[in-house]
Hints:
It is built from seven helices and eleven strands. The protein is α/β, with parallel strands linked by helices. The longest helix has 14 residues, at about 115-125. The mean pLDDT is about 90.
Amino acid sequence: MAAVDYEKLARFYDGLVAYDDDVAFFVNRSKQASGRVIELMAGTGRVSIPVASKGVQLTCVDNSPAMLAELRRKLSMHDLSVEVVQQDATRLDLQSRFAFAFIAFHSFEELTEDAARDNLLRRVFTHLLPGGRFVCTLHDPEVRLRDVGPSREKQWRFEDPNDGREVQLRLRTTFEKGCSLVRGRERLEDLTSGEVLADLPLCFRLTSSEEFRPLAQRAGFSVEAVYGDYNYGRYTAGQSTSMVWVLARPEAVSNG
């Protein structure tokens, strides 16, 4: 798979991810946590900024310097204080322990290798306090696949946050059934001049509930709930647009 140009991705990320259905959910869960909160694969702060603005003691982790530079710019603009850490989430190694951790926008599925997924879950478990919670969001595979395929190109337009010009995105995808990989290209063009501004690779691995549950349990988590949306609706395979997994690190067992 071609390497992602994170400089370009960071520039256009807010337009590419024009989505806020989950923000209130993560803000509320973070406010309810009895301790520090960590967002993994935080990107440019689509969720981090609203969470931090509520006074949550937040740590944001991402592996891309370009994405984190944009996050820091936004934090400065909003006069917010957040711990920002450049680390690979699959090798998370921090001194702090957290009451609540989360990965938004199905970003866990960017981990396409078995070892990476196992490592991330184990590292999150290690960094949670006993009784802590981890929310991990996934697509429902059947629902997501309805928009995948060469004949199902998606297009939408947004305003470049840097200079205000109108940008058109064309998203083309294919599905590799044997390994559950969705691959594609995100082509961004200036609508006025036709200039190609970016041509970004896309790859993620769809994960069924039957596959994810044992992954989480093998890392030590218990499954507290699986929701089908961010309003705590019931998850129904083939009908829900998302799987919102609430995983718990068990309370410490007393030996006395």
